[in-house]
């Protein structure tokens, strides 16, 4: 699983990885007062391993982000449907919003009558402060939003931006609100551990252990209180432990890869065990550290792309259902992104071409001596492919890629990393290559921005990034991203997107393998009202912001 398959992980996205025997024996914890009592708790699980307590909602590596419960405590200004991002959002902490001057100005009307969990009122000052925090702290402004002025008056908050925010509309509107009274006391909000989370959401922290975080419903809330009185977030050791818990009912909601999902999950309780994995416009692929030689050479990256077998990754690594394979050489998922693909690449699809890869390498000064590829300096080409040990689909993908790369003499190894150390290594650029996800959005801009944007480029060793993990440095790509974001008309926007596709194909900073989704597995035994193909009001993933919307929509089965 990936924490932001966010992002998303990472999420994933993706989307992530103490054996919890007590949580995997089918003894689902229920609040009952006899056999006829209704269940009042919902058990949510993620395969992310033991957690370190940190409820800081800004940090993607925090326990609140890893398990998804931050969204039950902290709320957005506007709730955007993650699978229909082009649709108008649902008013949440903001009741109205107006963009003007080519998306360089935003006026927000803040909802009255909202209180934080400590009983204090939420005001426009808190909202303005939540934006100011992001402006003043680069580590919190993970989307590199170019904030200008931020002012509050009465129930209004007005913002200006130094550039058009056409592409970032939803990112700005979905900003979550924190209380100024608490956060102004922190020495460094980009690093401080939050043990007492205070938000406007319907839940507050009840207890924490490295295995399970429990939230309890508040006494009052600006909307109707949810029917679920308690949320229990259990972090299982790996995908297998999480799958077992789903199968036996001790976990009722998760985002996890399940090989042979029908036999090991659905068939265990076909009336109640459901899954829904709607696609979004994001991708998964092999992120390459472009600062490390010889992988700073685009010819080597293009050759690697030519030998990776996406059919094997889909059928073996992703069990033939989880993440559809990427076919377009641009990395744009189809059919969702078909209309965006440039004319030059309309009919060009990924295909295994070992001979073509060898020719590509030879022309760039690489030599294949026996079964060993040597770079132009005569040094053997080796690389470490790394992902957390519990992410079984990604690990299988890496094993396939390792074998594929051996066809052109690259000696690759697969490192099954500790999740915390892996996140740190990716964040700081201390890796060779890793399977990872991109952001998703209403257009392919978010994919390319996540991969290539120079504005979020940081030197190796400096963390707090939200994309461009491969440290890809292309002024041309950054310029095209700016031109797309600030375009005055659709033709200019199309020209910029076509340039980005050309850079992706020619320089291959990420080798795309799979399309993303924002899915989930859930049980209708105790709770109903989940989103599905016939009711697509939200993505089904418990680590997405829309998870709050789902929890508010759930009702006891049979009620």
UniProtKB/TrEMBL annotation:
Pfam families: SBP_bac_5. Transmembrane segments: none annotated. Residues 1-21 form the signal peptide. GO terms for biological process: peptide transport. One of its GO terms (molecular function) is peptide transmembrane transporter activity. Keywords: Signal. It comes from the Bacteria. One of its GO terms (cellular component) is periplasmic space. Residues 90-447 form the Solute-binding protein family domain. This is Peptide/nickel transport system substrate-binding protein. It comes from Kribbella voronezhensis.
């Amino acid at each position: 699983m990936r924490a932001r398959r966010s992002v998303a992980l990472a999420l994933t996205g993706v989307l992530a990885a103490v054996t919890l025997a007590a949580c995997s024996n089918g003894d689902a914890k229920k609040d009952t007062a006899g056999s006829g009592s209704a269940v009042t708790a919902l058990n949510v699980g993620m395969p992310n391993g033991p957690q370190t307590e940190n409820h800081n909602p800004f940090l993607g590596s925090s326990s609140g982000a890893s398990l998804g419960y931050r969204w039950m405590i902290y709320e957005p200004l506007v709730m955007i449907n993650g699978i229909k991002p082009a649709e108008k959002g649902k008013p949440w902490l903001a009741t109205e919003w107006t963009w003007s001057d080519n998306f360089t100005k935003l006026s927000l009307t803040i909802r009255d009558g909202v209180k934080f969990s400590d009983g204090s009122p939420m005001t426009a000052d808190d909202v303005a402060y939540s934006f100011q925090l992001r402006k003043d702290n680069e580590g919190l402004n993970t989307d590199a939003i170019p904030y200008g002025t931020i002012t509050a008056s009465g129930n209004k908050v007005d913002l200006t931006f130094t550039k058009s925010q056409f592409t970032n509309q939803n990112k700005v509107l979905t900003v979550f609100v924190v209380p100024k009274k608490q956060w102004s006391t922190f020495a460094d909000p980009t690093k401080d551990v939050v043990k007492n989370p205070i938000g406007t959401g319907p839940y507050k922290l009840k207890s924490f252990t490295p295995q399970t975080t429990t939230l309890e419903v508040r006494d009052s809330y600006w909307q109707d209180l949810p029917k679920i009185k308690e949320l229990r977030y259990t972090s299982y050791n790996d995908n297998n432990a999480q799958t077992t818990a789903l199968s036996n009912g001790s976990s009722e909601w998760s985002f996890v890869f399940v090989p042979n999902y029908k036999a090991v999950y659905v068939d265990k309780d076909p009336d109640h065990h459901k899954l829904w994995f709607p696609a979004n416009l994001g991708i998964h692929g092999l992120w390459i550290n472009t600062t490390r030689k010889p992988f700073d050479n685009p010819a080597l990256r293009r050759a690697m792309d030519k030998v990776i077998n996406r059919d094997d990754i889909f059928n073996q690594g992703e069990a033939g259902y989880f993440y559809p394979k990427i076919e377009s050489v641009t990395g744009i998922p189809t059919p969702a992104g078909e209309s965006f693909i440039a004319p030059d690449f309309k009919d060009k699809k990924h295909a295994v071409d070992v001979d073509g890869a060898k020719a590509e390498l030879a022309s760039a000064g690489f030599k294949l001596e026996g079964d060993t590829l040597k770079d132009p300096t005569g040094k053997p080409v080796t690389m470490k492919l790394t992902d957390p040990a519990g992410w079984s689909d990604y690990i299988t993908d890496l094993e396939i890629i390792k074998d594929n790369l051996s066809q052109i003499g690259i000696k690759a190894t697969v490192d099954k990393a500790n999740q915390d150390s892996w996140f740190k290594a990716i964040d700081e650029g201390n890796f060779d290559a890793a399977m990872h996800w991109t952001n998703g959005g209403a257009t392919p801009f978010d994919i390319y921005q996540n991969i290539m944007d120079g504005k979020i480029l940081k030197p190796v060793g400096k963390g707090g990034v939200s994309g461009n993990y491969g440290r890809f440095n292309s002024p041309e790509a950054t310029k095209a991203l700016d031109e797309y974001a600030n375009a005055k008309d659709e033709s200019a926007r199309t020209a910029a997107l076509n340039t980005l596709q050309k850079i992706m194909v020619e320089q291959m900073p990420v080798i795309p393998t799979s399309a993303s989704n924002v899915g989930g597995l859930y049980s209708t035994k105790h709770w109903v009202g989940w989103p599905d193909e016939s009711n697509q009001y939200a993505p089904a993933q418990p680590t997405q912001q829309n998870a709050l919307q789902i929890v508010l929509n759930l009702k006891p089965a049979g009620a």
